[in-house]
Amino acid sequence: MTTNLTFHMSSGFLQEVTGSLTGTGGTGTQNGSWAYLWNETPPSDVAASGLLPGAANNWTPLVLNGSISSNVTFNSTNSDYEVTVALTDASLGTVSSSSIYLIVQSENPAAHTDLTQSSAIGSTIGQILPNTQNWNYGYAAFEVTLTNGSADLGDLTAIPGFAWNTAVNIDYDDSTSQHRGLGTSAQSLTNTLSTNNPSAVLKYPTSGGTPYSALDGVTSMVNSPSNSTFGPGDYPTSAWSSYLTAVEGMSNITLSGTTNGEPDANGVWHNAQYYSYTVSTQTLASGAWGAAGTYFVFSPNASSQTQGYVVMSEATLQSNLYAAGQGTMSIWEDSAFTQAYDVPGSAPFGQPQTNVIGTSVNNQWGNLLTPFFTGFTAGYWGTTSQSANTMMPTTSAATNLGGGTIDLNQTLNWSPAYAFDVHRVGTIPTYQHNDFWTQQFFNNSNIYGSAFSDNLSVGLTTGPLIPLSQPDGSKLNVSNIDLYVYGASETATTYFTPVASSVYLSLPGGQSDYLPVTTVSATTTGPQLIVSGQTAGLFPESTLSVQLGLYQGNGQFSYATLQPASNSNTGQTDYWQNYNLTNNGGVWTATSGGSNDEGTFIITTLPMSTTGTTGQVYWYQLVFTDSGGPPKVYNFYATQGSSVGTIDIDATDFAADGGATLAPTGQANYMKLSLNPATSMPVGMLDFAYNSQFSAMPAAPVAGTLSGSTFTPFDGQDSIGITGNKYATGSETAAPDITIDVGSSLAFGWTGTNNDSSTNYNPSTKVFGWTSAYTNKIVANDIAMVTIYDGATAIAHLQAEADLDGQWTTSADTQQLGNGTYTVAMQEYLPGGTTIFGTGTSAVAPISAVLTLNVSLTQLTLQETSSGDALQFAPHGDLRDGAGNWLHFDPVAGTQLPQGAQLLLYATTADGTLVGRDGTIGGGVSLADATLARLGSMRSDGGMELLKLGQTLFLPDDQQLHFALLNPDGTITSRPDVHITPQNNGSMLVTGAGLSFSVTVGNNLDHQDYFASEQRSSNLPVVYLTQGESIHVEAAGSAKNANTIHFVRFDYDHDSDTIVGVGGVAYGNTDAFRAAVQANWDPSFAVQNGNGTFHVSQDWKVGGKQGFYAPVLVTPDGEIFVPGTANKDGRVHVQTFGENVFAFEDVRADHGGDFDYNDMVVKLSVL
């Protein structure tokens, strides 16, 4: 789609620049004036102007040497002088961000600086702002985005300064139009700005003789506080000192809202997310944050998706209040500022990242500062306001829940209606507590006056931004933009849309109160009210109480509760319904007439008054209440239409406060109230869900190996499995599929851990990578649950906690796999790893794209070591880290260890140095750390074998497997008598401490082997189970007691592979811990047996949440025995005797326990 810009000059403008209404050049001057359009990104096929020798094609002449240039044409229809400039065409289809400048210069023609040449401005935008004074010009600018997207916008800007009265108009294909402009003359605004700060005024030079041009001595530009060249000198930041001191003493400032998902300047994507931060000050000694002094600290609330502490000095804050982007701030993981967080994108890819970043970086921490700075610009901080509606009572009551004052220290209460002390309660400070420059443009224009105009204009019926795409949904850009310039004394109010805050409707003449809607006067017809509570990634909580307030007159309301009902769409009871409002004996009742989608409810007929007449105004309320805290009240207003039960449809006939937006639908019987919950509701009223606006699912995990903390991805992962990422094209959108030859130390990470050349932004070529758009980052501190499937069966679950930017790697848990083809996927869980993110909403986090992992291990030959008492692999070629083979251990019938003893199967290097399960060698590695598995024998008191035992483990190719004996009393025989005999089939027959067993190399595993993964990684009697999973349990033993076996889901620390508690109660030898165990065992399973030898079996369907489960034993006298030493005697009462086999001792040591571990033996099998 081609977009042109038609530039219109009024005769008044030409009169000022040339001295003639027609621009032919006046008399009595040296004709030293020039005017141009400068286009930042001209299409390549646009030729440079022949009137400007040596100039680039950025330039279009308007006035040359005091006369209108020959390329300008006169339009007799509108009496404008016009030129047309191409912004996009066949050679430049889109423009992501660009500016068009009007530059007007006046100076001595004998010493003229030709701005069009490369020695001056040329084609370099950075030369425009700093040289206005030296080269004697002023300018105005219009900014555009033309990507053929629905969100393409343009704006007039005076952020650097003000020079000319410009306006913009766009006619759309549907015969509608929009315009933006100045609501006063340029001269009037210039006088106001100049009087406030004379030092900010630049003037065109004046000749001592014949004037250079008609502009001699005229103001060329008034520089703004945001002007990086002139602002610091013209507007000292010390003017903010008193206000800053006042804000330092405030303890209740809260910032809340959302940040867009976008890449930063270094091409690193940061997810869209909700933030809720409190602001405080601290006096800090010198440190990594900077010199000693006062610092502003931004602290995340618990429910904030953005996490991390932001520390910024008072001086840095002060330097940003006129112009954002000054200085730096630091990001920390903890409130004591001891753990620096190196922010991804803080430096170009490949360079060391840092926790020190700029104050306006485009990431979640830079963006949350925007409202904080805006609070100074508008004077919100420390301000209490009252409603613009004079009928609103000053206190809340049962008859008006919305009464009371408005605390602007909470950003969710902000509205343009309260900016710059409007409706302020109390004495207005005499010191500077807002930005005068911004206020003038806010009140008198649709033009950007500061970097914070976007924030200030939220809630205005017309803000500075103007749509540049067609309104029909085609996403095509408009074909033409009309840009106008006027003389200093001219007004262009035709193109100015009066700034109106849409928070309430004032009463029209002749109406002394809003129309009451009583049960007596209410209509049976009325508009349908559509209430939208959905924002990408969040909803109002479905458990909130909701009331509709119907006005009764004199500032009072009657409330109808929207009764929750069963919802077939969400599967829960909620208020996302289609409500019918009825009058039952003088009482309003709202009942559901059917389910709606989550995030939307409808009141099918909003009552109006039978006595209402055209143009009269209604006032309603919508009230949300949770179990604690004050209600959230939205007041909204509508205007009576031409007949009873209808409404007017113009934008100015609607209003809503509290951060909501009431928009016309173009029909007299519909209106839509958007709650905008991210910026209007307290965080405690919000539910968070998966944000699918960027992709229907996350990208596939990346596979690699982990050595210490170093993750090394496998080569060949050249795709990500999703189509929503614009930097993944063609085959890169396919699901990744790789083949590996290692079976241990396997880990998985987010897309950024990949080593493919397409992964990350390349700063040298400026080519964006996959991670410059959404892939699979998740919410900070949430859990990336990586699941490995063998066919349709989940065989392993690995967890990774996301860092502050949502990056994750399963560094705490590594996985071992045998030969086969597996699929690997990730799903986001809430902290703790038991609840899927978005549970309770209709947008539960989806399972990611899958990675197909083909494992093909090199078959190795097993042999005995030279000492004859250990196993190793025969010499072989070099293999990569993680290589090795699986060993299967099968005890020989009739052989046994001493009752209650176990063989510890542990790893060493060739020289006998212990190797930990995590790969650590020597140093502090203990025998327990090096134990890969345990194997025992289990017989009844009468000598009968109770259960069939076996074991499987993975032995790295360069390690040896040794044997130690764990005796029943807890002592260890480090070198038991071990004999190894090679067998003809390649296996080994090992006899150790009386137990004989065969050891076979076999790299094909079954699901039962994988079920024991957590036992191998932790050396604990645990299994990982999911809710609803079916398990077969065998229980056998010889015991005098009739004991009961239960299973409990324990809190588990992945970093240390330890049980840390249950139900939030810390692990330990305490009655509180054992009581928590009793309160939390799974109610779906219990087996009681004893009083002799027994063998029973039972299937168990897990009723609890997914996580790590372990067996616990309860004796008839109520003694509870748990894994580890958290038992009353401090002894271990449950041990692992084989793969998925756990055995108990049921008598305390101080009560005569024999620790034969045959009192209750359980074996778990997957079904």
Largest sheet, in brief, is: 10 strands, antiparallel
- How helix-rich are the residues, as a percent range? under 10%
The coarse overall form would be: elongated
Provide a count of the helices: 13
- The CATH class of the largest domain turns out to be Mainly Beta
Unreliably modeled segments: none
What count of domains describes the coordinates? 6
The helix-and-strand class reads mainly beta
Q: Report the span from N to C terminus.
A: 61 Å
Question: Any guess at the CATH architecture of the largest domain?
Answer: Sandwich
Overall number of strands: 70
The whole-angstrom Rg is 37 Å
Estimate what percentage of residues fall within beta strands.
25-35%
